[in-house]
Amino acid sequence: MNSSSSSRWRRPLVGVLLIVSLAIVGCATTTSSTGRRQYVGGVSQQELDQLGTKAFAETKQKEKLSQDARQNAYVRCVVNDLVAQLPAQQRAVAWETALFQNDEPNAFALPGGKVGVYTGIFKVAKTQDQLAAVLAHEIGHVVERHHDERITRQMGASGAVSLLGALAGDYGQLASQGGSLLAQTGFLLPGSRAQESEADVVGQRLMAQAGFDPAQAVNLWQNMISAGGERPPQWLSTHPDPSSRIRELQSRAASLEPVYAQARAAGRKPTCG
Question: What family does the entry list (predicted)?
């Protein structure tokens, strides 16, 4: 390679490194609602919401959407009741739900107010309160900025370039190269054990505030274990130890009883199904 060619290659590389450096400088530490220290800020909230919206659109293209009107309305009802108890900033988001025809017992929530549910979840979430336990947990990931944490941790050079390219509108090129925005962000991969435990805490509190019985979170996980037999469902296997998790959920359910009672007294009595 001659000197002029080398120079042409170095200039883009310097630009990339500058972008990555600026992104990393923008990161900061903060504290979640449970008191956990977080390292966030790899992308702005607007960019994070944009990534969530694009990832949700990608999922809807890949997965078969359920046409069951009753089940779709049921999911929307539970999500709406939960969202109504979020802080004002999160309530202001135009939340959207999608029900996918898939036997896996799974659900997810993404930045930008996107909630996806697989029909397989109804095999284990047998009541509206149990479905609320699942969805409140997933919404907890969004509220506590877990996706922001994940992207910030992934802000190595290649990851930063891919993400910034997608944000700049080069998503088509990213896809044509065999990439996936879901893969680049890791949005649908399990969170860390700390994040999963935190989503349990936040989600169980949220469901109680919305008038769903927080004790039903325990029943949900018992159903998940029973459904898995010797091999737990994938969604369960990526989370903290089930037995210790159930003990924690039971303990919190008792402490959240006054919150639940107050919500019911205030007229928050969900009737989703």
Answer: Belongs to the peptidase M48 family.
